[in-house]
Amino acid sequence: MGVTGPLNATSPLDPHSKSYSHINGSTSELLDRLAVSELCKGWPVYRDASEWKNYRALFTQDATVWTTWSGPQHVDDFIAISKAGKEKGVFIMHRECGTLAELGSPEHGRAIGKMKATITHRFVASDGSGSQFDVDCDCRFVFFCEKDGTAAWKARYVKLFYDKDKVVPVDGHTAPRFDKRELACYPEGYRYLGAAQARLGYVIDLNLPTPHDSRLWAKMYSEMEKWLDGEDVDLFWEG
Known about the structure:
This protein is an alpha+beta fold and 239 residues long. The protein has one domain: Nuclear Transport Factor 2, Chain: A, CATH 3.10.450.50. Helix content is 28%, strand content 31%. The protein is built from six helices and six strands, in the order ααββαββββααα. The protein has a six-stranded mixed β-sheet with strand order 2-1-6-5-4-3. A hairpin with a 3-residue loop joins strand 1 and strand 2 (71-74). The mean pLDDT is 95.
């Protein structure tokens, strides 16, 4: 099989306009970055296992999280709909691939956690065959973290970059077909994931950042830098 044309890969341009504390530094910087990285890893470890009290402890009281299938949700509402989904057999797991953190100035008490991960959502084919398949989506969780009144790190916002996705047949050969018109309804980066989740009745958030949308890609990095600089941020881009 030949290869034709360039892939829609990530840009070679550095998306950050400035640098923050991300490696080395003082002991306090190292400990803060370790704490933020540890917090990020709580999403796959705790949510996948339904350890809801531990999961809730990762967030501020007024935290908001975004996913393809939920859109923006207060974290308590997100936990509630996650529980309801699991009761109906929704099976979503996360593989953490690597996590690092960046710190703003100490007076702001803010950090950004960056967790590379793969979302893997198990589906059953709708053709009556009972065959199963996964949709795997390579992504990057971005945790907008701040220190609370006890100097503990908590996540105020969690929003993701969706890089690319694919269909994986569980038995190695049986995979569903997706019509091109159906796929075209969803952004490249989480196209198969969005189409498969929509077949379950979910309303898919179409305004999440991907490498293929330079506007939202740049906006996400701009908001990350505003957060680290102690400024107000706007992550509500829906509609």
